[in-house]
Design brief:
The complex is a heterodimer of chains A (257) and B (143). With 257 residues, chain A is α/β, with parallel strands linked by helices. Helix content of chain A is 45%, strand content 11%. Chain A folds into two domains: 20-49; 63-253, Glutaredoxin. A six-stranded mixed beta sheet of chain A has the order 1-3-2-4-5-6, with helices on both faces. Chain B starts with a helix and ends with a helix. The chains are: A alpha/beta (257), B mainly alpha (143).
Chain lengths: 257, 143
């Protein structure tokens, strides 16, 4: 790649600039053609691939389905929404470390309602299956139990661990006392795919950029946080109540506290 | 191969990357190949559009302009053109700054990295270095 054409002062005539000598234009055009062909093939190949992964159906999405999964009193003064990916480690950490306190000290105390919205990220190959597993558990009133199992045991079923997580999810379902025949049919049929996609669409509409992202009252806060910080947001939102928004109202970005 | 021919080749590489991301943004490509980082997070963020056009689309325009300048500057009549060298430096300089700002957004605002965007940013740094060397060479030669 060294430029041998600039002759370093030897035999140079002022005003005449030859960058290269012995340069072969053909060679350049061959290399250029090669780069164009390789780049073109890559893009054509990418465009021909299915737009969704094999285990995802393209069921139509209706906005009214984006209701998330509710915990607590829907009429509580503060509404909390969580947009999370079951395979995202940060979501798992929040679920295991902070969420138990949020449930017992905020949701169960009637200070806020809590809704979980699936926000499956495409690079996590097993997350859609996990969302389906949780949605099918919800049919039997065990969404949160399955939610906890999934987050607690992420390393057992994530993309690095397995290509077929169904068996592992089935084990969780059995352990939770879920009717596995019904669950399995629901899982295989991807019955709740539209609901999952609608939850994800709600996140996209709200410009969720990372998981987990929380909406607490009127504030949208990306990233996990400690219980104390979470509670501070809830307290702040409670002061704004009863103007606290319903789940589909526009939110504004949070300023860190 | 001359510097400007190398610049043209790098421009084509950049066009491929920018076209790939632009097609993704318009839904032609469904899933980004992204072994490192969170390309979807970055490319679906609110900073992925500027004046109604995907950022990658602006990149496509910049790489296309670089290709045109580099190709014109590679012709025998213009291979010593200082004006073209200056335009190349201006284009690449602006693109390096813009890419730097985008990388800052990825690291500190979006908190996600898109490997294709980072590759493009590195590509612009290499291009800018080559453009500076080209300007230096043609300026020295023509003086």
């Amino acid at each position: 790649m060294a430029d041998k054409g600039v002759d370093g002062g030897r035999g140079r005539r002022p005003g005449v600039v030859k960058q290269q000598r012995g340069n072969s234009p053909q060679r350049f055009y061959y290399v250029l053609a090669l780069v164009v062909v390789v780049g073109g093939l890559f893009i054509v190949r990418a465009a021909r691939q299915p737009k969704v992964r094999a285990n995802v159906t393209t069921a139509p999405i209706t906005p009214t389905q984006a209701e998330g999964y509710l915990m607590g009193n829907p009429n509580a003064p503060v509404q909390i929404l969580e947009f999370a990916d079951f395979e995202c480690p940060a979501c798992g950490n929040f679920s295991v470390i902070t969420e138990p306190d949020v449930r017992s000290r905020i949701v169960n105390a009637g200070l806020a309602s809590y809704r979980f919205f699936d926000f499956p990220l495409p690079m996590h190959k097993n997350t859609m299956a996990a969302s389906n597993a949780a949605a099918c558990a919800a049919d039997q009133g065990k969404f949160w139990e399955m939610h906890d199992q999934l987050f607690r045991n992420q390393p057992e079923w994530n993309t690095e661990a397995t290509d077929s997580p169904k068996k592992i999810f089935l084990g969780y379902a059995k352990g939770l006392g879920i009717n596995t025949d019904t669950w399995e049919k629901c899982f295989d049929d991807q019955t709740h795919q539209p609901r999952i996609m609608a939850n994800q669409a709600e996140g996209i509409r709200r410009k969720v950029q990372s998981t987990p992202t929380f909406v607490i009252g009127t504030r949208q806060i990306p990233g996990g946080m400690s219980y104390d910080v979470f509670k501070a947001y809830v307290d702040s939102a409670a002061k704004e109540a009863p103007a606290a928004p319903k789940p589909d109202t526009t939110t504004k970005k949070a300023t860190p506290q | 191969m001359t510097r400007r021919q190398i610049l043209a080749l790098l421009a084509v590489v950049g066009i491929c990357i920018a076209l790939y991301l632009t097609l993704y943004k318009y839904g032609v490509i469904g899933v980004l190949s992204c072994s490192i980082g969170s390309c979807e997070t970055v490319n679906t963020s609110q900073w992925s559009m500027l004046f109604g056009i995907p950022i990658a689309g602006w990149g496509l325009g910049a790489y296309a302009a670089l290709l045109v300048l580099a190709m014109v500057g590679s012709t025998e009549a213009r291979e010593g053109s200082v004006a073209i060298a200056r335009m190349l430096v201006a284009l690449a300089g602006f693109s390096v700054l813009f890419s730097g700002w985008l990388t800052y957004l990825e690291l500190f605002v979006i908190h996600a990295i898109c490997i294709w965007c980072v590759t493009s940013a590195v590509l612009w740094v290499v291009i800018f270095t080559l453009c500076l060397a080209d300007l230096r060479a043609v300026s020295r030669a023509s003086s």
